[in-house]
Each structure stands twice: as C-alpha cells, then as structure tokens.
C-alpha cells in the first residue's frame, strides 16, 4: 500500500505542476522538463533525486526526430549515488548519441553464471565512471551507420560481506578499458519515448583495450504493434563478449541503473556472464483520463559461451503496472511496475519513462 500511495502522491505533484493545457500554449523550439525522481526498487530502497530533460529541434523539417539532453542525479536510502547524462541529437543528416555516467553503488553480487542462488550473494562497494559517444551518418530516412568511442573505469571493489572468495573475480582489482566500435541504427517508431507503432534495431560491436582487453556485441530489437488504440510491445536483446571481460562490463538480465529493463522481477545484477539472451513482451492499455495499465513477461538467460546455453536454465519473470501521462499530449509517463520471478523477491519499480 505504501508504494501505491507514493505513486499517487507523485501523480498529484506532477498534475499540479503541469496543470496548464498544452493545446493553449504556442509551439516552442526548446522545451525544458524538470522532474522529481522518486522511485523504489529492491536493490536500492527508496530513490530520490531530480532529472532535467531539454528537448529541441535541429532539423529543417518535421521528418527529423526531436533531440534531447538529460541529466539525472539520484540518491538512495542504501547509500548509492549516480549522476548520468544522456544525449540524443538529430540533424538533417546525422545522429549523435552520448552517455556520461558516474556511479557509486554498493550492490549485492551473486557471482557469475546462470546457476547462482540468493545465498551466493554478498554486498560489495565500488565507484565507476564511463562514457560512450556515438556519431552516426544517415543512410536513409530510417537508418544510420557510424562509430563510437568508449571509456570505462572502476576502482578497487570492497567486499563488505563474508564471501571473500569473490576477490578473484575478474575486475574486482579495479582497472579500466577503452576502445572504438561500429554501430548501426534502424528506427521507424512514431515516438522514441512511448512508441505505439514501428520498429527499432540498434547494433554495436566494440573493440576494447587496456586492463581488460575484450570485444563486445550488443543487438537490441523492438517491435511495436498498434491494436485498437492500445499497444503490443516486443523486445529481444542479445549480448556476446570475448576476451578478458571484467564483471562490471558483463551483461545482466536486469540493469536497473542503465537502460535495460528486461527482467522486472529479478534483483539488479542477479545473473551476469559473458553473454546474455532475453525476450520480453508487454501489453499497454491506455484510458482517456491519462491513466493506463500494462502486463509484461520476460524469459532468457546468461551464458559464458554459445555451447553452454541450456534452455533448462532460462529464467522467467512477469508482472503488471500502472501508467500516468504526465501532461496531455505528452509521451512521458510515470510508471509503477510490480514484477515477479520464481524463488526471487518481488520487485517494485516507480520510475519515469517506459521500460523500452
């Protein structure tokens, strides 16, 4: 009940702040949206902070998608802190994507692989800085190709629990890596924040050197199908890496502090390894009074190599959620999701923006 009351209190705050009707205000080239960040997740406890998003148009026609720059500062009741800036800039012929991220995030570490149990967890503490900058050239109205540069650094991990044997885990000694990569992007979505129709494909292949030399492939595919005013949303993500991969760069089934909400219902970082495969589907129903609800489910697993994939080790998660449109005509939603997975604690997520 306390999470539901928190959800309603944030709705009241946002409804009061943005009570004016968008239809009565003139169109603006630049839009500033400050948002309070109030949320909850099993790994973080209560989250509180702020987000500022600036949207603007740089294209000479309406066919060019709007650009945005966002900055988020977040604290949690479990002594975690993050500062993250995301940028997505569209021009007539180019697209630029940026990420600058600092985290000081004590977390539960469960080991590596698909067979760990809750009893394998121990608390660890670390601080990490990373950045990724991508520049892409338009091939046609829906496709881009380009390259990126990456840098990531993590200090020495402190093991706060009693499982000192994890000290030999790759990356616990700290270190850094950097490199370059190639990327491809295909996007026909009608809206990048709350898509109701269209497709999205994003593929990256990175070559990384430094203390942890490795290669990394990531493919993200999404499909949105309109259905009598509602939406069926599908997502498939695939990761594969090789070489000396540190634990913090390994894909996770749920990365709740990044941009991947594949497994709502699992603790953040519950499973990680050199590779991962995950699929999720979501039904989104909207009401005319700005409220809505969703039903979602996920399946997938992590693996160290292709030959190690076992369908018997696939994990499953499912759940439901509520939505509230922050402003009339806006594509930004406040969401409350409740996720479940067998033999795992229930997950409750109160956040802004759709999971995908």
The first-to-last residue Cα distance is 26 Å
Shape: globular
Helix content estimate = under 10%
Count of DSSP strands:
19
Characterization of the model:
It is a single chain. The protein is globular. The strands form 2 sheets. Strands 1-2-3-4-5-8-9-11-12-13-14-15-16-17-18-19 form a 16-stranded antiparallel beta sheet, covered by helices on one side. Strands 6-7-10 form a 3-stranded antiparallel beta sheet, with no helix packed on it. By secondary structure, the chain is mainly beta. It contains 1 helix and 19 strands. It has a single domain, classed as Beta Barrel (Porin), CATH 2.40.160.
Can you give me a brief rundown of this structure?
By secondary structure, the protein is mainly β. The chain contains 1 helix and 19 strands.
Question: Layout of SSEs?
Answer:
Elements: H1 2-17, E1 30-41, E2 45-56, E3 67-76, E4 81-90, E5 94-104, E6 107-109, E7 122-125, E8 127-138, E9 143-154, E10 158-159, E11 175-187, E12 198-210, E13 214-227, E14 230-243, E15 275-286, E16 291-303, E17 315-325, E18 333-340, E19 347-352
Keywords, separated by commas or semicolons:
disordered N terminus; 16-stranded antiparallel sheet; 19 strands; 54% strand; three-stranded antiparallel sheet; mainly beta; Porin; 356 residues
């Amino acid at each position: 009940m306390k999470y539901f009351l928190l959800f309603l209190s944030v709705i009241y705050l946002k409804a009061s702040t943005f009570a004016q009707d968008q239809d009565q205000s003139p169109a603006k080239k630049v839009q500033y949206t400050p948002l309070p960040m109030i949320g909850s997740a099993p790994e973080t406890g209560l989250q509180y902070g702020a987000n500022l998003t600036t949207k603007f148009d740089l294209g000479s026609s309406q066919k060019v998608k709007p650009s945005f720059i966002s900055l988020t500062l977040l604290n949690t009741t479990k002594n975690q802190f993050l500062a993250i800036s995301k940028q997505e800039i569209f021009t007539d012929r180019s697209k630029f994507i940026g990420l600058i991220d600092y985290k000081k995030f004590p977390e539960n570490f469960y080991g590596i692989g698909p067979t760990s149990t809750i009893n394998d967890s121990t608390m660890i503490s670390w601080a990490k800085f990373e950045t990724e900058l991508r520049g892409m050239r338009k091939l046609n109205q829906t496709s881009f190709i380009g390259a990126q540069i990456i840098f990531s650094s993590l200090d020495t991990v402190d093991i706060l629990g009693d499982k000192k044997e994890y000290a030999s885990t790759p990356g616990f000694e700290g270190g850094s890596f950097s490199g370059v990569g190639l990327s491809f992007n295909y996007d026909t979505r009608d809206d990048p924040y709350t898509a109701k129709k269209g497709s999205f494909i994003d593929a990256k292949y990175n070559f990384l050197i430094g203390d942890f030399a490795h290669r990394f492939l990531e493919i993200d595919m999404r499909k949105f199908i309109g259905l009598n005013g509602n939406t069926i949303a599908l997502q498939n993500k695939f990761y594969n890496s090789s070489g000396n991969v540190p634990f913090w760069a390994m894909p996770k089934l749920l990365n709740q502090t990044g941009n991947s909400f594949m497994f709502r219902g699992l603790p953040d970082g519950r499973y990680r390894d050199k590779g991962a495969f995950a699929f999720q589907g979501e039904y989104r129903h909207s009401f005319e009074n700005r409220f809505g609800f969703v039903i979602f489910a996920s399946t997938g697993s992590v693996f160290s190599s292709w030959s190690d994939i076992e369908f018997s080790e696939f994990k499953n998660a499912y759940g439901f959620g509520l939505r509230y449109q922050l402003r009339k005509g806006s594509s930004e939603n406040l969401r409350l999701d409740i996720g479940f997975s067998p033999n795992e604690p229930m997950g409750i997520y109160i956040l802004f923006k759709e999971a995908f």
